[in-house]
Amino acid sequence: MTYDANNIFAKILRGEIPSHKIYEDEHTLAFMDVMPQVDGHCLVVPKSGSRNLLDADPEVLAHVIAVTQKMARAALKAFNADGVQIRQYNETAAGQTVFHLHFHILPVLEGQIIKPHSGKMADHIALAKQAEALRAAL
Ligand code: 5GP
Predict the structure, then answer these.
(1) What's the total number of domains in the chain?
(2) Taking CA atoms, which of 38, 64, 70, 86 is between 20 and 30 Å from 80?
(3) Distance separating the N- and C-terminal Cα atoms of the chain
(4) Residue of 9, 33, 45, 91 with the most ligand 1 atoms within 8 Å of its CB, for mutation
(5) Is the CB of 8 within 6 Å of ligand 1?
(6) What pLDDT does 75 receive?
(7) How far apart are CA 132 and CA 21, in angstroms?
(8) Distance from the CA of 73 to the center of ligand 1, in angstroms?
(9) Which atom of ligand 1 sits closest to the CA of residue 99?
(10) What is residue 56's DSSP assignment?
(11) Which of 90, 109, 97 minimizes the C-alpha distance to 35?
(12) For the whole model, what pTM was predicted?
């Protein structure tokens, strides 16, 4: 299994397709998931290419997990959540659909039902507002 730089997140990183960006540094980008499972569902990706956790450089993982923690704290605050789920899938059998390493961040309210993975495309105005709320909470 090799990394294919034509995946959608590599295109987002290269600026070839738009995204609602929340945070960016030298190693990492965080942006809204376009088919969110909850309000505030966002993704953290490394700028360097790996399919998933299995082939990632541990140094890259260290950067990504630190930003995932930062985003999880912001998501908790911005959405007044009671908890935060971090999800990460490796290969098709495990539910991975985009083959560039990413961590999902889902702020969750007590008793909230989480929508199915890769379900419905969200309204872009709503996503822009949520990205703004997350940026303000960083
Ligand atoms: P995976 O199944 O690989 O863990 O999750 C891929 C995620 O990427 C899904 O939650 C899906 O909604 C999201 N996604 C797919 N295409 C796009 C896109 O073009 N832009 C953004 N921002 N998210 C996407």
Answers:
(1) 1
(2) 64
(3) 36
(4) 33
(5) yes
(6) 98
(7) 9
(8) 21
(9) 3
(10) -
(11) 97
(12) 0.97
At 16, the amino acid letter reads: E
pLDDT at 5 > cutoff 90: yes
What is the Å distance from ligand 1's center to 94 Cα? 15
Spatial CA neighbour of 117 closest among 91, 76, 89, 90? 89
Nearest CA, atom 10, ligand 1: 118
> Average pLDDT, stretch 87-91?
98
pLDDT in tens, 116-136: 876 789 999 999 999 999 999
> Hey, how many other C-beta atoms are within 10 angstroms of the C-beta on 47?
16
CATH number for the domain spanning 117: value is 3.30.428.10
Instruction: Please indicate, yes or no, if residue 3 is contained in any of the structural domains.
Output: no
- Over residues 12-37, the mean pLDDT reads 98
21: which 2 tokens? 């960006």
Q: What is the pLDDT of residue 118?
A: 66
| 13, 19, 35: residue to mutate for ligand 1 pocket, most atoms within 8 A of CB | 35
Tell me, yes or no, if 102 is annotated catalytic: yes
Å from CA of 137 to ligand 1 middle: 23
Provide mean pLDDT across the span 76-96: 98
How high is the mean pLDDT of the chain? 97
